[in-house]
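Quick one - inputs below.
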Amino acid sequence: MKLSYPADRELLLRTGPKRASRHLVKGVVVTVLILSLSHRDAGSEGVRSNSGEPELVSIRLEPEAVELQGSGATRRFLVLGEFSDGLQREVTSASRLRIADPSIARLGALGHVVSVSSGRTELRAELGGKGAQAEILTLGTERRRPFSFSWDIGGILTKRGCNSSSCHGGVKGRGGFRLSSDATDPAEDYQWIVRGGGYQVLTAEPLGPRNSRIDLDRPEESLLLRKPSFRVAHGGGERLGVGTADYEAVLNWVSRGAGFEGNGEEGLKVERVEVFPSEVVIEEKGKHQLAVTAYFSDGRQEDITGQVRYESLNEEVVRVGEEGLVEGVGKGEAAVMIRTAGRAAEARFGVIGEAIQEYPEVPRQNFIDEEVFGKLRRFHLIPSELSEDGEFIRRVCLDLTGTLPPPERVREFLGSREEDKREKLIGALLESPEYVDYWTFRFADLFRVKGHYRWVHVYWEWVRRSLAGNKSYDQMVRESIAAQGYDGPSRIYLIDNNKPPALERVVAEQFRVFMGRRMDCAQCHNHPYDRWKQDQFWGLAAFYRRVTNTEWAFDNVVFDDPDGHEVNFGEGKSTLSFRENRHPRTKQLVPPTFLDGRVLPGRDRRDLRRELAAWMTTHPYFAQAMVNRMWGHFFGRGIVDPVDDFRLGNPPTHPSLLNRLAVDFQEHGYDLKHLMRRIVSSRTYQLGSRPNANNGGDRLNYSHANPRPLEAEVLLDAISTVTGVPELYKAEGMLSGTAPPGTRAINLKYPASYANRFLEVFERPKRDVVVARNGKVNLMQALHMTVSPTYNEKLGKKGGRIDRLLHRGASSREIVEEFYLAAFSRFPNEEEQAGLESLIQKQSSRREALEDLLWAVICSREFASNH
Amino acid sequence: MNQLEGLSLGGPISRRAVLRAGSLGFLGITLGRILELEAALGPVKGGRTGKRAEACILLWLDGGPSHIDTWDPKPNSSFKPISTNAPGIQISELLPKMSRKMDKLAVIRSMHTEENNHGVAHHYAMTGHRPSPAMKFPAFSSVITKELGQRHNVPPNVMVPEISAGARDYFRSHFLGAQYDPLQIPDPNRQDYKIPELSLPESLTLERIEARNAFLKLVDGRYRQAVESPEYANLDEFRQQALKMVLSQSVRQAFDLSREPEKLKDAYGRHMFGQSVLIARRLVEAGSRFVTAYDLKRVETGRNWDTHGTNDKQHKDVLVPVLDQTLSTLLTDLEERGLLESTLVIAMGEFGRTYDLNPGGGRDHWCHCWSMVLGGGGIRGGQIIGASDERGAYVADRMVTIGDLLATIYKALGIDWTREYMHPIGRPLKIANSINDETGKPIEELI
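Output:
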């Protein structure tokens, strides 16, 4: 079936009385806002008028020039005004727009321009005595754009919400009718519409009889039109009113034979969808129109601003109308998602209180500061002061080594006048044994070091050696994914009952941990809110298909059988069975397939996991995921947060920073120390945690350090250090005895084998999954702080800090100072010193008073957080 | 946020303001003032639909009892049916004490679930969902705790005795928040039974607690003014709550079994399960909303309900007599205290057992048709719901799913069973999720 698509798609699809009137109303609203600005007398540029209203300084058109290819190509122009308060505001609807030569291009409502014939002309804008112009070049206007079911019908289904994941785009669809969410799988959608039938999750067989949802003989009677126009009952209500442009477009498509593609030309390819602006600042109650453009493979572009679905990811910050007009609701930051057939984009909005004109000069250490401070400037947020030395040494010691600096080290650092003392400290910490201890602990969490006590040690040793030798991160991950034989990392494949875990679990976990994306949903069905397909999941699962092990009691070897022959191992096991990698829905065997659909060629299938590891560790996701995870460690919040949840609908707060960090990490050979040094050397990291008058509400932009709770293990170690009483860890289960006295919680190789009430209560992860520690407090912790042995018995124990200080005959003044240096890495201020000394004095027993003071120190917020 | 806000206003004190004042109180206001403020708070209200049961005790029969040897006697059981005080209802002869209590209980004989392995079935029974790699589901006990709220400073959700970390996951609140997780307490039948977090060290007198708070106020002052985090406010609330729990005699007494008469302890049974159920009653009486008494592998015999071998002997000698004694005593005890109408009692495992014996004389897992009982809390007792076929193999009449059971439980407690929560990953979750993601329907005959 060949289709010819009307030349003026604009007329057929996108006009209608409703639309025009809406534009009109919107225009009025914006105009009211702007009028007071535009009628002020000229010549007062850059200064505030008496009433304090900002003055319009200049305007410009965006884009400044376009090349419109093909018949009916369109583009949306916006007028942007520069104002005296330093803000740029979108003023299109208040401006007067005019096309110099209407025979070349025609002007629709609100800056929408349509090419008419090939040539060159200009769009001119005028507002409050200011002017601007943009060049328009039109070519190939005899070339019509072919029709495409995927793009044209898919776009309508997306715009109208028919295929949203809460409706027919859900896992099972709705009312027996399923569409791919946001038309990501048009061929499938086409089948369900044209051939009919219901979708089933567990089998590719259609459910029920195949009754077409369109009627070629009586197009008006197509179910596809009767339902959404509510001529028959429809759970989703009226979506497509009779006579609307979208209704007419669908009707027209059915009338012309309901083809998949038209004109017999090559299928229409959309190269990208772009939104302007991608990041912008507006005021509370301020408005900003978005302009969305689709770019096609043949060079054509179309304004699709009115044809996409908008969604604000935080309605308390911004709201967005159906036509892409965004309104600031409350201060903060939020993204607007833009969805159209198979494509999505997002625009990030900052809603600010008052614009800051006199912005302070903020020094920058490296590109991190350029990115973070650049955005702070744009968002009118002023960063806090640099952290005090005490704050810095405590923070960086905890972050790089999980260890509080001892009082003498703190004194030395606070007293030093060296210019580069922070750099030197960072260098020393990165080379310290505590660095290895701490990061072994963190990476043991990441690689889930647990399992049978007989071989957990080799696994732990592998992590430790890797950190001690600063092995590159990609190398570590390659060794982990492709691990074989007795290698330490191979033990990850023996974690569950000493045999390889279900391969689908491995896929989801490794993808989440190393690539930062959650594919878990796609195991059972296409991901409802993201773009992951079940095919992609099982394509990756195939790489793990051959993993097996010997299951000998004392000598468990992990390996991939190269070609699937049955092997006789003698002891315990005689045959080798392979789990088949079958797609649960189609029941087809799925070969090893990369995300982009590329099947691993047969000749490369000798060592599947090595191939997978090579692909994964060179994929752009890989570096991104790790820098984001690290960033989350140092700032308590990922640039994408949660750190392993990169997803449509969860965009990064600083996309360009994320990319630069990833590229930098890659260019420096995935050197973890380099990455850490980069981060902690930035001024962003070294800012104080005390907010200033301007940035107190900021949680996303790193304008000040955010306090983070200490991890359970680090907190327990810190309590032991400050009280001077080490914790004893008794083994249970298969092991017996105690860990060597003085062992720190972060040094326990195999945490689960040492029961510890404190660590339980503070939710030490069991390493059953790789979790982000949530740091949420609970009632049990509060009870624990009040009565538990950790918070009571340690205080006065013989040989502890108090005991030693009293023994030495230290004065109360010295004791208070020592507590503060040990716990907070700072000297007490005068008020604290005097207040505490007098409070000690007032108690009947000095010893008890000191214990109670020490209790207060380890229960305080300042102690239990890294800030 | 300004901590004084709300206190200085003359208008009615909002709950929020009082809590905030409380957190200030922790640092300055005396303990007496805390108690005053506490009185001003009144009981915490949840999202209830009417006056209903106030609390729930779950007797969890871990491993899965044999339904044909307990509540649904059949010719293929080795035990005979006996009549009960409820007309027309027969149960197994292994439950003589319960036979005099059946007017209080309803038996569901047509439970149908879809999981035959302990872990998954257990998860399914507690949450209405199969485990998913993508998300964790809150247990219905947490949902109830959240919906009903705390009473009288008593921990609202308690589990006795403590169980392994793996199984614990099915009982957790996950995204609902840690405050709805069960507080786990040790086996109360043990000599050394004690709750570490509720046992005030002897050295810790009231004076010292006040001294410590005075120190803390000074130590924390500077930082508290400068740095904010949402978790800090939570911690203040929890600490205040903790202090009240530790200092409140009634809370500590709720956990103190020594206050029960020896005769009643005997009546419940001098074993882990009996004493756990007794503690459950004490806690519910004091204010807990949901207590799970877990019939774990018996310390005494090393057995639980998972009778893959010698089913009959274990049911007869070990398992059912304990259940018979403890459950019947609980019903009597609750009734005598006037608590039965306000306390929902549930006894169930994760599934039933096969209708025929295996070669080892055991019965294996059976999820297709099994029985459970519930009573009190406004449930109309003396009823049988549904029926199994002649062997107890499949549902013959009126299939009841976990979703239906949960809907019934929620309805008894006055909770809207059609409610959905939004999971953080963006998926709506029915609190009474039934097969095929339908919403469960309450059993109308019961409530």
